[in-house]
Amino acid sequence: MTEPIALRVLDRFRGLFSRFGVDYPVMRRILQVKLTMDARRVPTIVGKSKQRSDDQNAEDHNQFAKSLWIYALFGVFCSAFMWLGDNYFFKMSLTFGVLMFIVMTSLISDFSSVLLDIRDRNILATKPVNHRTLTMAKTMHVCIYLIMLTGAIAVVPLITGLIRHGILFFLIFAVELIFMDLLVVALTALVYLTVLKFFDGEKLKDIINYVQIGLTIVMTIGYQLLIRMFNLIDFHVTFQPKWYQLYIIPAWFAAPFESLLHRNGEPILTVFSLFGIAVPLLAFIIYIRLMPSMERHLQKLADPGGRPVRGKGRLLQGLSRIFCSGSQERGFFRLAWSLMGNERDFKLKVYPILGFSIIFPFLFLFTSGFDDGLKGLQGSPKYLFIYFSGAMISTIIMMLQYSNKYKASWIYKTLPISDYEEVHRGALIAAIVRLILPLFLVQSVIFSFIFGSGIILDLVTAGLSLLLYTVICYAFLHRNLPFSQPFDAIQNEGLRVLPLILLLGGFGVLHFVMTFINYGVYAYTMVLILLNFLVWHPNRKIFKRLTRRVEN
Amino acid sequence: MNNVMPIITIRDLRKRYGDRFVLNGIDLDVYPGQIIGYIGPNGAGKSTTVKIMLGLVGDFTGEVRIMGQSPDGEDVEYKRKIGYVPEIAEIYDTLTAREYLTFIGELYGLSTDDAESKAQGLMNRFGMGRVFDHRIASFSKGMRQKVLIISSLLHNPDILFLDEPLSGLDANSVMVVKEVLALLAASGKTIFYSSHMMDVVEKISNRIILLDDGRVVADGSFAELQEKSQEGSLEQIFNQLTGFNEHKQIAEQFVAIVRGEAHD
Predict the structure, then answer these.
(1) Average pLDDT, integer, range B226-238
(2) Which terminus of chain B has a smaller tally of CB atoms within 10 A, N or C?
């Protein structure tokens, strides 16, 4: 068992934890065990011979820590803000806006499952450990990762700030970051707690998913507001804080820089600064007070649903008949459809991503500016931004490999499946029909309202491109049978997705080029139809090569 | 027995999920030294009762007292006196048996050294001394079950809740565990033994509680139940009390459907 540094840091706050009714030694022990287990998340392929603890020192390093450099890279971009003039309020609002955005979204999509974990209730909740200690252990578990993540993003901006503005700036920055993390964790947890309190069973799980999507979208829009708050074209404009900006949380964290470093005594700034300290503390204290009830309500997640849902079977049968050929393919279509709809961990991971997909095209649409209002958009080629809705396809497709109940995939081996092609096709079609297609349709409708009916052909073209792109993603990313890997095994897949994102851009650019050629889009559409036909035709067995790869 | 205080009292315990009641008013007094065979058909509410007593499930009505304490409150000290082997056992299987058991022992309030040496001793007795430092992920079902049994006993609890504790164990280990249970009960421990293997329940328990549809339908020693129902084995008593006497017909229909000779 390892003794992570994080625990030694926590030891310094021992007294504080005890004051809140937390049994510190027990919490520390739970955290130590959890961190040790995290560090041991090795891919399942590792043979049993390696599972001796003698070589644990060689194995016990955290995969998460290894992936942090990507966040550090974000930080490098953020540090550019440090050079934006001398208006602290302006540039720090921007910096904190970006940081909060990244931290909050990763908390929602990656760590919600930790906050809402009930798998180890039988182990922990049956022991004489009070609710408060259990929840605090969970919260600290998340906080440790969040602080590592924040640290990774902020390291370059911090150093840049130190060089450019001196030690005091650096210190304020560091302290404010901690307050920001506190706020983010407490807010998210409080939202979950509220939901947990008022709903139960299955409905609750769905609502949590919607909350996640909602939060993702709100964060994204809030970030837009932040940028609008300033006139980006003229960096040196003297920015006047206004009271309505109190709603913009990153501004709270930016105010102290102005107050303390520029000795700006403006009351607005003082109030903002106080908010930046008081609200996170208050939120966290409320959270701590409510923690025991959080732990109690969590049990609801394990409760059986009130009433079994029936009647969806017909619809699903019909859908599988429309979209699939062959009875095994239909079967796996239905399996994948139900798993995607029922498995909480899958939804927790994928739904926020769907939220992004919805918002992405509009995000780019609005940031690209539209001086003439909505009317000015008609006739412009900006409808091609709909390609951005495909930005998350690769991630969704990747997720198809994972499941909480990955062990159930033994059925693939024991069933007389003559052709794994059908397994893959079934799952892929289910993902398209259930997740990707509805999203694209909604967006197409909105886009045709904005741009007029003239773009309908282009939307069809884009749809066909995305369909082809989805298949390419699947072929490129899937090394396993659907739902056959534990979520633990996801590692650094972000890098594998990168070339696919570029490819998507390629599709968009190609479409754009075609619009300049007479009948270019028509010809392009015909080509896409043909390609899709070739790829999807059951007799072509395009998944065959992939299938063979998987079987080995 | 009447002058001994019950260690567990349950009065009119009800629990519902949505609009479905799983427990419909359970009354129970349990005394030290009893081995209680806690039986009933699937979905009768056995696990729910146990989970309520352990504080895993809340929002019930009625009164539950374990050593005078309610599992509903903030105070969790009473859990120090309870050992639990759950039916579906999540276990931190990336840990080694040594790490896991020491951790559990510590949660129960043992010192690290005590927990570790006790765990080592018990593992050795189960013939698992050699795998003490192996990860639990590499264990077979029976080995995991042994780890679970050990983890429920490390802290010398006064009450044991066992849900199918013998599943996956080989015949020799089964004999050891049964003997262990008898000795524990003789030393005044209370054991709640929940199982579907009627012959085992019949042999080891000195009191049998039969649950059906969230109610206690029978409570007494095996001899008493035999007398009342005029049946020979616990299995037959079980069938009779749960109103089940058509196993032959059902089996015949079942096979007919398997062979494609009949439909529903």
Answers:
(1) 80
(2) C
Alpha-carbon separation of residue A422 from A239, A267, A325, A326, A419 (angstroms): 61, 67, 9, 8, 6
CB B110 within 8 A of CB B163: no
CA A303 from centre of chain: 26
Ranges A411-425, A529-543, B174-188, most confident: B174-188
**A35 and chain B: CB distance < 8 Å anywhere?**
no
User: Are A512 and A449 in contact, with CB atoms under 8 Å apart?
Assistant: no
- Closest CB to B138 among A1, A40, A51: A51
Give A 267-296 residues with CB within 8 A of chain B: 292, 296
Q: How does pLDDT run across B73-91, given as a tens digit for each residue?
A: 777 888 899 999 988 778 8
A128 chain-B contacts, CB cut-off 8 A: 76-80, 107-109
Task: Give the pLDDT score at A482.
Answer: 87
Is 70 exceeded by the pLDDT of residue A490?
no
Write down the residue that tokens 């007292």 correspond to: B65
User: Min CA distance, B133 vs chain A (Å)?
Assistant: 6
Q: To the nearest whole percent, how much of chain A has pLDDT over 70?
A: 79
Residues A506-534 have pLDDT tens digits of 998 898 888 888 888 889 999 999 988 88
Tell me the Ramachandran region of residue B183: left when phi exceeds 0, alpha when psi lies from -120 to 50, beta otherwise: alpha
Comparing CB atoms, the residue among B80, B106, B133 nearest residue A29 is B106
Closest CA to A347 of A308, A384, A399, A418: A399
Task: Please indicate whether, in this complex, the C-beta atoms of A128 and B135 are within 8 angstroms of each other.
Answer: no
Distance from CA of B214 to the nearest CA of A (A): 16
B15, B60, B92: which to substitute to probe chain A, counting the most A Cβ within 10 Å? Answer: B92
Position of tokens 């059908």?
A422
Tell me the pLDDT band of A489, cut-offs 50, 70 and 90.
low
Question: Are A36 and A60 spatial neighbours (Cβ–Cβ below 8 Å)?
Answer: yes
H helix or E strand, kind and range, residue B252: helix B247-258
Among A195-209, A241-255, B96-110, the range scoring the smallest mean pLDDT is A195-209
Enumerate residues 135 to 154 of chain A having a beta carbon within 8 A of any beta carbon in chain B.
none
B36-47 pLDDT tens trace: 998 888 888 888
A44 pLDDT exceeds 60?
Answer: no
Which residues on chain A are in Cβ contact (under 8 Å) with B84? 122, 126
Q: Which of A68-72, A544-548, B21-25 has the highest mean pLDDT?
A: B21-25
What is chain A's length? 552
Can you give the three-state secondary structure of A44-80, one letter per residue?
CCCCHHHHECCCHHHHCCCHHHHHHHHHHHHHHHHHH
Q: Does A76 touch chain B (CB under 8 A)?
A: no
Give residue limits of the domains in chain A.
Answer: 5-47+56-302, 315-548
Closest approach of A200 to chain B, Cα-based (Å):
8
A487 vs A341: CA distance, rounded Å: 17
In this structure, of A49-53, A299-303, A381-385, B5-9, the range with the lowest mean pLDDT score is A49-53
- Neighbouring residues of B247: CB distance < 8 A, sequence distance ≥ 6: B239
Is the minimum CB–CB distance between A29 and chain B shorter than 8 Å?
yes
Cα B142 from Cα A445, distance rounded (Å): 58
CB B181 within 8 A of CB B55: no
Least CB–CB distance from B56: residue in A200, A299, A307: A299
Tell me which residue of A480, A326, A327 sits closest to A400, measured CA to CA. Answer: A480
Residues 6+ apart with CB under 8 A from B142: B168, B169, B170, B173
pLDDT of residue A296: 74
Q: Phi first, then psi: give them for residue B219, nearest 5 degrees.
A: -155, 115
Phi, psi dihedrals of residue B16, rounded to the nearest 5°: -135, 150
pLDDT of residue B116: 93
